């Protein structure tokens, strides 16, 4: 790879940083371009790249592709740049179990945590039923992961993979998303130990630090 991948991002959104973790883990050159909400992501220049007007989106000048949706981007990066299998498996059934967990992240953890954050922090009126529902969904998703990790260090196989890493940024966002709903972390010992392992990885630590710095700069 000779040219950096362009990553369109925003400081507060967990999804672009999920992609950044994979880029860092694979040691790929990339450049982050921060967009403002709402005008930056809804403007004609960006919606020409992503008609959905959301981040992340990448442009890879090495292959000529423009791609949006974090799950699709992660699969693209793994298939094209993880030739050594650092973060993946090519064996059966592991390669399908990886997809299973990635799809659970993008269809379960992300949307439910995102709705919790919306109703706790941004919705113009407080709706106790919605706040309660999505608080319980945070608990449910966390318990699914906790149970799946019983007797294991990682979700698939015996190493950290893109499936594990895809959960990190939303997991880190959970206390903000939950609002007044108290998450009893002691009820999820497998999950907590797993998250500690993931967030101690140098690439993950760097990305979480970069996210904090970007937020402080007002990106």
Automatic annotation (TrEMBL):
Single Gene Ontology MF annotation: glutathione transferase activity
Residues of the GST N-terminal domain: 3-85
GO cellular component: cytoplasm; nucleus
Occurrences of domain GST C-terminal (ranges): 91-217
EC number assigned by the record: 2.5.1.18
Cited InterPro entries: Glutathione-S-Trfase_C-like, Glutathione-S-Trfase_C_sf, Glutathione_S-Trfase, Glutathione_S-Trfase_N, GST_C, Thioredoxin-like_sf
Pfam families recorded: GST_C, GST_N
Keywords: Transferase
EC supergroup of this enzyme: transferase
Record's signal peptide: none
The reaction(s) this protein catalyses: RX + glutathione = an S-substituted glutathione + a halide anion + H(+)
Top-rank lineage group of the source organism: Eukaryota
Assigned protein family: Belongs to the GST superfamily.
Function: Involved in the oxidative stress response and detoxification.
Name of the molecule in the record: glutathione transferase
